[in-house]
Design a protein that fits this description.
Blueprint (H helix, E strand, L loop, with lengths): L1 E7 L2 E8 L6 E8 L7 E2 L5 E5 L2 E5 L4 E7 L9 E2 L4 E2 L8 E6 L5 E6 L5 E6 L5 E6 L5 E7 L1
Parallel strand pairs: 3-7, 4-13, 6-14
Antiparallel strand pairs: 1-2, 3-5, 7-10, 8-9, 11-14, 12-13
Length: about 150
């Protein structure tokens, strides 16, 4: 951290604090559970998205991402394949922190890299639900500027 003191005629009238790096950016995987049809949540009814789903960084400027899994049932992962970044699975309502410095400019996709899977659970109404989860729809974009 850098501290700058501002003075007028030798009297300090204010301080300014400058951080040496970017503040943390929080990215959430948001899930809205649709109604069950015959005991199954169909993949086309899933409402999953990253918030925000578009992020911009600058080459050479350190980045801190806090990835939050807001899903109440499943674990999710966060990956930027072209930048060789991938988290371990993040359990429901937990988070993980990623720190990196972009070294190349371009547009990169971030996603949950796990394969399609089925979860069976009992929902808040006591109904048994089989949910087919297609992680390939969980996409976002990172633009790294020169």
């Amino acid at each position: 951290m850098i501290v700058i003191a501002i003075s007028v005629l030798g009297i300090i009238v204010g301080y300014y604090f400058l951080a040496a790096s970017n503040p943390s950016l929080i990215i959430r995987l948001v899930t809205t559970n649709p109604p069950v049809e015959d005991g199954l949540i169909l993949p086309q009814n899933e409402k999953r998205s990253w918030d925000p789903d578009h992020i911009e960084f600058t080459v050479g400027v350190p980045v801190i991402l806090v990835v939050v899994n807001n899903d109440d049932i499943e674990s999710h992962q966060f990956s930027i394949p072209e930048l060789n970044i991938e988290t371990e699975p993040i359990p429901p309502f937990e988070s993980t922190t990623i720190e990196f410095t972009p070294t190349k400019s371009g547009t990169f996709i971030f996603l949950d890299p796990r394969p399609e899977e089925t979860y069976t659970y009992v929902d808040y109404r006591g109904e048994t639900v089989n949910q087919l989860v297609d992680h390939s729809i969980e996409l976002g974009e990172i633009v790294v500027n020169p």
